[in-house]
Amino acid sequence: QVQLVESGGGLVQAGGSLRLSCAASGRTVSSSGMGWFRQAPGKEREFAAAIIWSGGSTYYADSVKGRFTISRDNGENTVYLQMNSLKPEDTAVYYCATTPMRVIGSRLYQIRSSYDYWGQGTQVTVSS
């Protein structure tokens, strides 16, 4: 049974930072693709960042590139999303997801259907 548990969300002012954590069990993060998606009220869930099994290559949505950093701690079997320079439009529920897919290339990691397990989500609210 694969389980993902997110934590670290909260309320922060614009320009501030937060670090989200995703603790995984039942699957090793270093041998899997791990992604962060987000869903704002009234909008579809969208891709934010991913880190793949091979060498830890990372991919980012244009909207977060240069501000967010995805990383993993193999010993803790945990994936992180460091979010800096937060904007009100970053307000959303953030979801962690995992995929057994082993391919090279960013496009597939941006698609929700590529992932087979999801966490429950953590709320991030950025005030202006």
Question: Please, could you describe this protein's structure?
Answer:
By secondary structure, the chain is mainly beta. 3% of the residues lie in helices and 48% in strands. It is built from 1 helix and 11 strands, in the order βββββββββαββ. β7 and β8 form a beta hairpin.
**Number of helical elements:** 1
Contiguous low-pLDDT stretches (5 residues minimum) are: none
Classify the secondary structure makeup into a structural class: mainly beta
Main sheet? 7 strands, mixed
Approximate shape: globular
Rg on CA atoms, Å:
13 Å
For the termini, the CA-CA separation is 40 Å
What string, H for helix and E for strand, traces the elements in order?
Answer: EEEEEEEEEHEE
How much beta, percentage-wise? over 45%
The count of DSSP E runs of length 2 or more, i.e. the number of strands, is 11
- Mean pLDDT rating: 95
Helix content: under 10%
Topology readout:
Elements: E1 3-7, E2 10-13, E3 18-25, E4 33-39, E5 46-51, E6 58-60, E7 68-73, E8 78-83, E9 92-99, H1 106-109, E10 117-118, E11 122-127
What is this structure, in a nutshell?
The chain has 128 residues and is mainly beta. It is built from one helix and eleven strands. The strands form two sheets. Strands 2, 4, 5, 6, 9, 10 and 11 form a seven-stranded mixed sheet that branches. Strands 1-3-8-7 form a four-stranded antiparallel sheet, with no helix packed on it.
